[in-house]
Amino acid sequence: MAQQPPLIKDDPLYKLLRDGSIKEFNERKTRGEKADLRGADFHRVDLRGMDADGLDLSNCYFRMCDLRGLDLTKAKLEGA
């Protein structure tokens, strides 16, 4: 089965990440908001400081994305 191309998603929390609003993303995630990030396009996005704990990042596209300092040990990364 062929992998789908990365998506620019309509999810509000995804948009926060693409816009660089990492602090607001983390706050909303802490309050219990859920994000559908599966298959999302993070090309050239700076994700430093993002709370990745428990996120489903399967099949995401991270080329030239800044992931420095992220703890991805509890994130789902299959196909990413």
Structure, explained:
By secondary structure, the protein is an all-alpha fold. 20% of the residues lie in helices and 0% in strands. The protein has two helices and no strands. The chain has helices at residues 12-18, 22-30. The mean pLDDT is 94.
List the helices and strands and how they pair.
Layout: H1 12-18, H2 22-30
Descriptive key words:
single chain, 80 residues, mainly alpha, 20% helix, globular
Brief rundown of the structure:
By secondary structure, the protein is mainly alpha-helical. It has helices spanning 12-18, 22-30. It has one domain.
The fraction of residues assigned to DSSP E strands is under 5%
Q: The biggest beta sheet, please?
A: none
Which runs of at least 5 residues are low in confidence (pLDDT < 50)? Answer: none
Work out the helicity level: 10-25%
**Structure classification:** mainly alpha
Write down the overall geometry: globular
Q: Tally the helices: what do you get? A: 2
Q: Kindly, what is the distance between the CA atoms of the first and last residues, rounded to a whole number of angstroms?
A: 15 Å
Mean pLDDT: 94
Order of helices and strands: HH
Which value, in Å, is the CA radius of gyration?
12 Å
Total number of distinct structural domains: 1
**Count of β-strands:** 0
